[in-house]
Amino acid sequence: MSELPDFKDLLPMSTADKMRTTKSLKWSTGVQLPCFVAQMDFQPAPAIRQALSEWALEGDLGYQPPALLKSFQEAIADYYSDLGWQPERSHIRPVSDLVTLFEQVLDAFLPEGQPLILLTPTYMNFLTLAHDSGRPLRTVSMVRNVADNCWDIDWDGLASAMTDGGMLVLISPHNPIGKSYTREELARIAELAAKSGVRVFADEIHAPIMLGDGQHVPFAGVSPEAHKVALTAFSATKGFSIPGTKAAALIFSNPQDVSVWKPKSMRVEFGTATSGLVATAAALNHGRQWLTEACDYLRSNRDLVAELTKEYLPGAIFIPPESTYLAWLDVRGTANYEQYRANAERSLARNLANACGVLPTDGEECGPEGVGHIRVNFATHRDTVVKIFQALGSALSPR
């Protein structure tokens, strides 16, 4: 097995037996090895806990203090500046979470009857919200590049879907497949969007978790066209293990969008938790070393998943993600897949949970391309990762 990196600030990270005592959402499902929700089992950076403790003991617990909002905005602006794009501080608007943010963006920026375009497989809630919105839905399947063991965009399919306005949802980095888009790919998307009058909702909430050699490339900063068409979503909650603090940001790069948003601002922005403003600023200002250690550990776990897939799930296909802590597994080639595939009563994921105690995200929730796939969260203790794949192998590929 691959060597475990030395890490300090992630401790004490608990094994599965200990995590069950925390009663978190993830570990309160009743199954032995839950790995469905995109949440780390890592302890947050000490600086985040310290900032929250000081705020709770000494800070203002009323509605959003302007000084905290400013520190939240400045921390995000500085974070993006380090990535090569400098958003205007006042154009960074707080929203409680990604789902709420996306709902409000659809309402404000996508007229009724205009198409919503998704690159699939996609984050499952985007599919649900797309159907609920009543907008026409167009999907473009990502292409598995067998030769290079990576994911490519179907450029002809995307161009065909972006012919008459609407909005493209660009998950960058891409949940659930873990693709990290290159600057050239992002610029080409922006060019297509600008030509066709398509807005691009760039979901960048997994941006801090980079497992390759490079850093995240912000969509809005790749070209003047991207700057004009982008509506960027960001949150530190996924990357810094603080999802319960409830804070995300909608970042405007096109100044005209600020006036469109303004009628919503008071009602929507006040739903952001003050604790989230505090935690986000602390994470981005003082949690970078923690993040480096977390990514080192996740990189090791990612490589471990590749080894475990070969050992315990022969016939499964796994393309190692370049970002995120999510493993997208095609298990249709495993020996016992037909026994556990989705049926009229239960999904593949639920059948596996009943058989071996592992509860992943069911791939079909991410689009039709996800049939026979599962999404496994590997942001957990290394021993737990091993147990997950041993259990999956006992069901899908028994020895």
TrEMBL record:
Top-rank taxon, per record: Bacteria
Keywords for this protein: Lyase, Pyridoxal phosphate
InterPro entries: Aminotransferase_I/II_large, Class-II_PLP-Dep_Aminotrans, PyrdxlP-dep_Trfase, PyrdxlP-dep_Trfase_major, PyrdxlP-dep_Trfase_small
All residue ranges annotated as the Aminotransferase class I/classII large domain in the record: 39-387
Listed cofactors: pyridoxal 5'-phosphate
GO MF annotation terms: cysteine-S-conjugate beta-lyase activity
Family that this chain belongs to: Belongs to the class-II pyridoxal-phosphate-dependent aminotransferase family. MalY/PatB cystathionine beta-lyase subfamily.
Official protein name in the record: cysteine-S-conjugate beta-lyase
Species annotation: Micrococcoides hystricis
